[in-house]
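Exercise: predict the fold of this chain.
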Amino acid sequence: MTLMSDEDLQKYYIKYGEIRDVFVASFMFLKIHDYFTQFTVREDLDSVAMGYRVMIITEKMIVSLSVYTPEGCARIRICKKHSRFSTDWSLFSSSFSTASFFADPILDSSTDVDDVKEYLQKASAWLFVMFKSIGIDGVMAKLEPKQQKLWPAPLSGDFAKNDQAYEEGLSYAATQIKEHGKNRVAVIGQDQLNMVIPYALALDGLSFKFSSKTTHGVQFTDSEKDSVLLSFNKGWLNGIMNAGYEIHDVGGLAGGDTLGPWYGSELQEVSNRRYPTVKVR
């Protein structure tokens, strides 16, 4: 492992200091013009040679600048601050594209100090104009994920023989939703025990559960188990989408080569309906 020289390390910190100061100054209008009361600057310098991140955190919105040294790019993200998430989760869960937010797309810049400064000034100028023209409520509305049209749920031909399991999955989702009565969030992902269920419990959200021998009235043999349970899971997920729940996707296994049949089928179902999901990592 090659360690950086003191000279190189100092260079990275100096570059960071310049960019941080311009970033904070560029978005200071959020505080000066009383759009927000809170204006907290938070920094992540754990691997300054690889890149860094600096954030402005208000009570309703987060503006983040990430500089990636190996990729040679700097990127701004703007998202709503989710009250039930930490700041990091708020950013991870935002599928928001900053470029599409502004009337004139602002593309990622290089890591050259002057380029980043120009990028920040242009982005902040556009945001300031938006606050002046449509107000804080209008900006917050633009940060809300757009709900896409929900298409009728198709039944995959691969599991047509398992119609009963699919219908039981729909019914089970309806029962879960009726008994839930909490925040309207359901969770999908690859690792049910270690990722999906713990995350769902943390949010008081819903996740898929099943019995090992029977699926709510659908009897099956060991050889039929996988296809029946996949059909039941598809029905459950479509029932969740029918109810308009927000779906949080915790992703696949870190370093995994495949998505697996369960998570893969979940992704296929939401894709078939073009249903929006919240990526949480």
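Check your answer against the key: The beta strands are 40-44, 51-57, 61-68, 73-80, 185-188, 214-215, 218-219, 246-249, 277-279.
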